[in-house]
Amino acid sequence: MTGLLAILLLLATSMAIGVYGVRAARSTPDFLVASHRVKPGWNAMAIAGEYVSAASVLGLAGLMLKNGVGTLWYAVGFTAGYVAVAALVAGPMRRSGAYTVPDFADYRLASQTIRKLCAVIVLVIMWLYLVPQFKGAGVVLHLVSGTPYWVGVVLAGLVVSVSIVTGGMRAATYVQGFHYLVKLLFIAVPAVVLIFSSGAGARAEALHVDLGDWSRPLLDVGDSGHPLLATWSVLLATTLGAVGLPHVIMRFHTSSTARVARRVAVGVIVLLGVFYLFPAVYGLLGRVFTPDLVESGDTDTVTVVLPGAIVPGTWGTLLTAVVAAGAFAAFLSTSSGLLLALAGGLSHDLARTGTSGLGLRRLRLAVAGGALVAVLLSLPAAAVDINVLVGWAFAVAASTFCPLLVLGIWWRGLTTAGAAAGLAAGVLASTGAALASVFVSPGHGVVAVLLAQPAAWTVPFSFAVMYTVSRIPRFGTPPPWAERAVLRLHTPLRSS
Question: What is the pTM of this model?
């Protein structure tokens, strides 16, 4: 009951903060990018709050419990992604004036076909990313209250969609900044308490816990026997995937200038580096105190189950409630950003007609419709590892939007045909590999790694296709304004 009360208090506070943003959401720029008026410090906290998802709070600790310390390469990639964002895309994307990735493609190539293709890819990435958020909400609410899994899924979808429908990006920013602080405190403080309460070293020796293969520094996907390849592929997906995540790109347009956008990206790196110290604690202690979760297949629950396993009685119940509220904050804040990007893809990009844009009513309907689809997809996903789905989302983003943005920003030779070919190749290769890893059962070895973690080959494949097709004259040449467009992306204005 204590955990349920903590979650309900968090939900009520989040909705109140979200409704506070209603007064600021009166136009499309207000709704999508908060009219470029978010302060840098709050924006950095909001981005970190949005980025630290169920994969970070539950999935990372669960995978570490199951697969060993090599799983921490996920945290390295998640954080390093913002180094790439700050270096390659934050400033130029802010100067482009585009609200979304499809907006940027339209600015750079002036092609409605490319715009709509990008919008479809946005939907694929966002739904892949939303499902584990809602799944995490269902799992945590079930653990702390005994309610059916579907209740948490529906409740999370309802709260997030209401908050975004009413207040848009400014409301999401307030909520996500608040959620980062909640997540950091509610995950970090119990972690410190558990370390001092556990006596983990003596307990591990008493239980004769085998830390042999588990303690190896590389990630071996499915015991493939190729840990270096698996680790490299995960790093490519998580690092370059951050460059191409639509909700990450949209966030930098809430900054007032390109210079501020870069400062925000650096701030996010610091905030993420601090947070990712703590999921590792839950994974390590879980190996000692809750190894039975591996056999039951419930490793994603270790962050919530662990406090009660180490600290009995009232204090354990209180710690569980605090961690559960922190985990729920992760689901809500990440889902807010994902739903905004999803709404932009559905209404601002995919269904756009002419050049007049669309009103707030259609954007809000898109939020509600996107949330409904995500809830329906999440209901049968209770048994799927959170980080598996998030990893697929990152792999698709790294194989599609990362090449488009990097080449579109830094190379004036990109053509419409090249962009279309590279995007199609990237999305088909990455999603095809992910589906094949589920339905084909490739077993072990190199093929198993390249299907389960396809970024090692899908990212260079997409870059190569995009570049090669752009270099073939019979498939078209760069638009006449390409040099001017690229120059604008790199020219510091007086205000940037």
Answer: 0.85
